[in-house]
Amino acid sequence: MIRNYLTIAWRNLLRNQAYALLNVVGLSLGLACGLLVFWFIRFQTTHDAHHAQLDRIYQITTEFHFDGVSHSRGVPTPMWQAVRTEIPELTTSMCIDNRNALLATLDNAGKPQKKFKEKGKKGAYVQPEYFSIFDYQWLSSAPQKALGRPNAIVLSEAMAQRYFGTTNPLGRIIRLDNQLDLEVTGIVNNPPEGTDLPYEFFVSFATLTAHPEFRYGGSGIDHWGGVNSNTYCFVLLPENADLPHYEKQLAAINKKYHGDGHKSYAHPLVPYQEMHHSEIYYGAMPMKWIYIMAAIGVFLIVTACFNFINMATAQALRRSKEVGVRKSVGGTRGQVFIQFMVETALITLVALVLGVALAAYALPHFDTWLEEAGGWPKSIRWDDTLLWGYLIALFGVVVLLAGSYPGLILAGFRPVLALKGGVTARQIGGMSIRRVLIGFQFMLIQLLVIGTIVVNNQVDYMLSRSVGYNTQGLVQIPVPEPGKINQSTFRERLLTIPGVANASFCLFLPTTQSNNTSNFRFDTRQEDEVWQMNTKNADDHYIETFGLELVAGQNIPPSDTIRGYLINEKVVERLGLKSPQEAVGKNLRVWGVDAPIYGVLKNWNNTSFQSGIDPVAIFTMKDIHYSCGVKLSTSNMHQTLGAVEKLWNEYFPDYLYEQSFMDEEIARSYILENIMLKLIRVFSGLAIFIGCLGLYGLIKFMASQKTKEIGVRKVLGASIGNILGLFGKEIAVLIAIAFLVAGPLGWYFMNQWLQDYEYRIPINAGILLLAIGLTFVVAGLTASYESLKAALTNPTKALRSE
Question: Which of 700, 605, 29 is nearest to 358 (CA)?
C-alpha cells in the first residue's frame, strides 16, 4: 500500500513539474533558513557548555553605587584572596585578561627570534585552580606543577605548533611584552569554538606577585579601590549550594575590605552561563537578538508552509476528477487524505534534503562573512542529537502544517460532482483561506521590512553622526614604553613627516570603549562627589590634535605629571555650576592630586551613541601615555604612514608596529548591530522571495478561477488595464489590511528596541510608508506575469475552455 502511495505521488509530481518545483524551492529555502537560524541559536545558547560543572560556576562581579547603579564583570584584584580566607569551602580563581599581548620566542643567546602579536582575548594570568573550575585537557604537565610558580606559561596545542613547530616546547623561553621571560611548562588542548574564554596561553598568576613593577593593566595586586573590567574572579559552588548564604558572606567581605566606602560597592554572584547573554555585563550576544532571530526563523518556515497550502489548493480543481475516479472505484476519504499527505511528505523530504545541503553550503560563508562577531559555528556537529531531533520535528510539523488542510479539502470532494467537473472554488476553500494566508505573509514581510529599515537607519545614524569633533584622518599608534622615550622629541620628529599635521601622547583617545573612571573632590567641598568622572591622561597637544573645542579658560600647560585639569561641560552641569567660566580656576582633586581647572571643553561622545555624554577630566601623566594620536592632512596616507612606521621602529625595534584609524575603532563599537543588520537583510530578502512564490500561486489560482469571467469581460469591451485591475485590487486590499496590523506592531517592537540607545532615530511615517511602498512594488512585479498572461488570453479560447 505504501509503495502504491509513493508511486502515485511520484507520478503526480512528475505530471505537475512546475507546481512541484515551486513548492520544493519555497520549502527548501524556508527550511534552509530555519536550519541556519537553529545553528545560530544553538551555537549562541551553548557557549562554554563543554564545561562539566557549568551550572555550578559563578562569577563575582561588581556593582557601583555612586550616582545610580552601574555594573562590571571585573573585581578588585585581591578579591580572590579575601574569598579564600573568608569562604574556604569555595574553589576560587582569579583570571586577568592579557589583551593584545606581544610574545617573542628566544634563541639560545636569549635574544628575540620570532615576534607574535596576539590580538584580542588570547591570553590570561590564571591560578592553578582555574583548571579545577573550567575543563581543559592537559596534553603535558598538570595545573599545579605548571602554574604553581612565577614566570611560567602554558600554551595551547595550536599555539605551541605556531611558535615552536614540531620541536618540544617544554622548557623553552617566551618573552612577554619585552619585559618578562617565561618558561613553557605545559600544553593544553585548543579552545573550542563556542567559548567566551578562548585563551591560547596562560601565565601563572604568581608572576604578577613576583613582579609588582610589571604593568598588566590592573589597579594593583593588593588594591581594593580600583576595578579593571578584565579582572575576573570565578568560584565553583558546592553541589546544592545555598546561594543566599554565599551572597551574605560576599556582602560581609565587601563591608570588611572596602571599609568606609563599602556602600558604594556590591559584589553579586552571577551564574557564568548567563554572562554571554547579559546586557548589563556587556555579554557577546544579548537575548533580544536571540529572540529576534528565532522569530525570523519561525516566520520563514511558516511562510514556506503557507506557500505550499496556497499552491496545493490551487491545484485542487485540476485534481477533482482524479479524486472522483478514486472514490467511485471504492477509495475512502482516509485513503485520499493519506495519498495527499504522502505527496506532501515526499515534497517536504526532497525540500528538507536540499535545505540541509543549502544550509551546510552557506554555513562557512556565513562564518567568513560574520567572522568578527564569532556568531556562527565553523563546522556542523552532525553528532548533535538535538540537531537530528530538530530536523525530524521540523519535517513532521511542516508535513502536518502544509499538507493537512489541502488533504482534507481533496478528500472531501463528492465523487459525482468531481466526475462531472462540478467542483467549485468555494468547495476548496474559495479565496478566503488564501486571502488569510497571503495577508498573513504580507504582514510578516512588512514586519521584517520595517525592522530592517529601522536597524539600518539606526546603524547609519550612529556611524555618520559626529561624535563632537572631526575623526577623519586620525590614526592611533601604540607607545609600548612611554616612560623610556623623550615624548617631545618623538613628536617633533613625527611633525617633520610630510602629511602629519599634529600628534598627541595619551592613554585613551577621546572616543573609545576603554575608559577609566575615578572619584574626585571639587574645590572646597568636604567630601568626594557621589558620581564618578571619566579620566583621560594626555599631553597639552591633545585638544588641538583631536579638534576638541574650549568654551572657557585655556589649555593645560606642558608637563610630565598633573599640573592642571581640563573638564567638559557635563562636569560643570553635574557640579551644579551656573556657567563654564565659574569652574575655571577652581581646585580639583583627582588621584589624590590637587590642581586647578584650566579650561572647560565642549561636550563630545567619549564612548558610543548607545550611552549619553559622560563627565570627563583630562590631565597629564606621562608614564602612562601608551598611545599616540596622529592627525593626517594628506591624501597620500600610504606614504605618510610608511614614514611613521619607519620612525616608530627606530624607537621601538623590539616591538611590532600596528595602527588603527579612529573611524574604524568607533565603527567597532557597533559591530554587533552591523552583524545583525546583515543577517536581518539576508533573511528578510529570503522571506520576501518566499512570499512572492505564495503570491504567484494566489494569482495563478485567481487566473484559473476567473477564466470565464475574464473572457466575458473582454468580449464586452474590457481593456487589458481593466483586467489587470481585477488582480491589482485584490493584492492592494490584502497589502493594506496586512499593513494595518504590521504597521503598529512594527512601530511598537522597534521602538522598544531603540530604547537601548541614548541617541536614536524616530520611527516616523516615512519609514512605515517606505515599508508598504516596497511591499507594493515587490507584489506588483511578482503578480505582473500571471496577470498579463490572463489579460492577454484570447477570450474565445477562454470561453471555449469553460
Answer: 29
Q: Which residue in 200, 217, 99 sits closest to 155, CA to CA?
A: 200
pLDDT at 371: 57
Alpha-carbon span 487 to 729, nearest angstrom: 74
Q: What is the spatial distance between Cα 401 and Cα 393, in angstroms, rounded to a whole number?
A: 12
CA atoms within 13 A on the CB side of 792: 6
Look-up of cell digits 560563508: 365
The overall average pLDDT reported for the chain is: 82
Supply 686's cell numbers.
529570503
Other Cβ atoms within 10 Å of 547 Cβ, number: 15
Reply yes or no on whether the pLDDT at 427 is more than 50.
no
Question: Where is pLDDT greater, at 91 or 735?
Answer: 91
Contact 410, 309 (CB under 8 A): no
The pLDDT of residue 250 is 92
Beta strand segments in 51-90, E: 57-60, 62-66, 68-72
CA neighbor of 444 nearest in space, from 296, 310, 308, 305: 296
Instruction: Identify the CA nearest to 314 among candidates 29, 28, 25, 19.
Output: 19
pLDDT band per the 50, 70, 90 thresholds, residue 592: confident
DSSP conformation class of 229: T
- Grid cell digits, residue 332: 475512502
Euclidean distance between CA atoms 764 and 772, whole angstroms:
13
Residue 76's closest CA among 223, 275, 255, 208?
A: 223
Write the DSSP symbol of residue 799: H
Residue 43 identity: F
The continuous run of DSSP H or E covering 102 comes out as strand 101-106
Q: Specify the pairing of strand 152-156 against strand 180-188.
A: parallel
Over residues 373-399, the mean pLDDT reads 79
Which stretches of 340-482 are assigned E, i.e. beta strand?
474-478
Q: Whole-angstrom Cα distance, residue 238 to residue 345?
A: 50
Instruction: Tell me how crowded residue 607 is: count the other CB atoms within 10 A of its CB.
Output: 19
Tens-digit pLDDT profile for residues 465-518: 777 788 888 999 999 889 889 999 999 999 999 999 999 999 988 888 777 778
Nearest alpha carbon to residue 228 among 63, 76, 69, 58: 76
Q: What three-state secondary structure class fits 629? A: strand
The residue assigned the cell 539600518 is 456
Contact of 228 with 45, CB cutoff 8 Å: no
Radius of gyration for the alpha carbons in the chain, expressed in angstroms and rounded: 34
Phi, psi of 657 (to 5 degrees): -75, 140
**In the chain, where the domains are located:** 1-47+287-430, 54-275, 481-654
SS3 667: helix
**Maximum Cα–Cα distance across the chain:** 104
Reported as a pLDDT band with limits 50, 70 and 90, residue 431 is very low
pLDDT band at 286 (very low <50, low <70, confident <90, very high): confident
Q: How far apart are CA 192 and CA 416, in angstroms?
A: 66
Taking the alpha carbons at both ends of the chain, their separation in whole angstroms is 36
- Is beta strand 138-140 parallel, antiparallel or unpaired with respect to 180-188? antiparallel
Q: How far apart are CA 644 and CA 44, in angstroms?
A: 41
d(CA 175, CA 416): 90
Element (DSSP H or E) covering residue 661 = strand 660-661
Those residues with Cβ within 8 angstroms of residue 142's Cβ, 6 or more apart along the chain or in another chain: 186
Query: How deeply is 47 buried, as exposed, middle or buried, from its count of CB atoms within 10 A (0-12, 13-18, 19+)?
Result: buried
> Rounded to an integer, what distance in angstroms lies between the CA atom of residue 563 and that of residue 558?
9
Which pLDDT tens digit goes with each residue over 750-801?
Answer: 888 888 777 888 888 888 888 888 888 887 777 676 666 666 666 666 555 5
In whole angstroms, what is the distance from residue 376 CA to residue 367 CA?
Answer: 5
In tens, the pLDDT along 139-151 reads 999 999 999 999 9
Outline where 465-550 has alpha helix (H). 487-495, 542-546
Interatomic CA distance for residues 80 and 91, integer angstroms:
10
